[in-house]
Amino acid sequence: MPKRRRNTIANSTEGLIGGSGSNLSEGIIEDLVNAVNGRLDNIVTVQGLSRTRNRIEDINIVSLGNNRYEVSSTEGGTYIVDMNENSCECGQYVYRNECCRHLIAVREALGEVAEVDTINNVEATRRARDIRDEINRNIRGEEQDDNHFYTDNEVDFDNDFAEINDDSIEYEYENVLNGNKSTFGVELEFVGGDANAIARELYDLGIVSSPRELGYHSRSEPGKWKLERDGSVSDGDAGGEIVSPILKDTPETWEQIKLICDVAKRHGARVDQRCGGHVHINMEKLDTARQRWRRFFKTIEVYEDCIYRAAGGDLGKVRSNARHYATPFSPRADESKYIRFNMDNDEDVRRMAAEVSKGNRYYGINLTNIARDRAPTVEFRHFNGSLNEKQIQANIKMAAGIINAAEKARFRDTEDEIFKKRGNILKNT
Q1: Which of 30, 94, 197, 377 is deepest in the core (most CB within 10 A)?
Q2: Mean of the per-residue pLDDT values for the chain?
Q3: Cα–Cα distance measured from residue 285 to residue 294, given in angstroms and rounded to the nearest whole number
């Protein structure tokens, strides 16, 4: 779920990502802060979903000492949770061996994300806000899941794969990311054509910031695309890279992408083995949450080969220079399991990104924008270049979906059975 933090790199306005403030009341935040700092010395009340009654209920927690807690709800029973054994006396845990809402409630109240017994009020407030955001997000259900698993429907997969072609795929304009609020950006490399003519027409349409091709890494204008030179694809006035501003899942965004592709192709632009189509995704969903980064790294470690296969796009295979400009990240993802790092603040995130990336921006996953405090984005460099709006949209969906899965696909501490199932798939790979 999005973390609504005003003071984190995930909400920086300087990069590709924007953010919003929390709507929590100060009373709620203060209660949770006290719960974290006091480690449940008094009665603490949190909210949890009762699946039996299908509603949110207050859950009261009292410390019994020795990391054991008495947990009761307004209309449910009273159970003992032992955090030393990570266990509960309720039937869901004892007979089904499932993580129950009582365990989840204690973890939320303890503020386990802090991983310390005493933290200052600034950090406590921040973690308390995260806890409440987690609850609110699950209640609102902003993101949708079609509950379809090809792993359970191999015949469906075979049929869909046999029938799929470009004409059968619709280019979407509304709710393309299924409620995912992550901001994103793209870099579209092309060869040939007249770069200045493309820039002029896009400028006249109000899309780009300059009527001519700009130099490499020219200054960006907020809300405007730009067309700039890139040494790997530019040749005189031909070739270049079209770079987006911060984008959101709105009809205007998808209309602009289609229009840019149409204009570029009309002036002779095309893609070949040299071209990449990089996708940046807001890192807000990962932010300072250690386990989300772990899930993200495991996803790349296990499935990067699949990402490369899908990234072939229109060309049908990975571009020839990918091993230089999009080196496999999976060895670094695997290495991350053995790197010890704190995740308590923004500087910790930057240090982690620097250590895992080793300062190399040419991995399939580029974390150097985070490490160097340039922009709080995860860059997916695997994708081939494309001027097919459907392919670009599919690439964005994939990248955003991977980040979303790293946030949501938990095999415990969640009442959402769909995401729990997805979490177990990742856990068992």
Answers
A1: 377
A2: 80
A3: 13
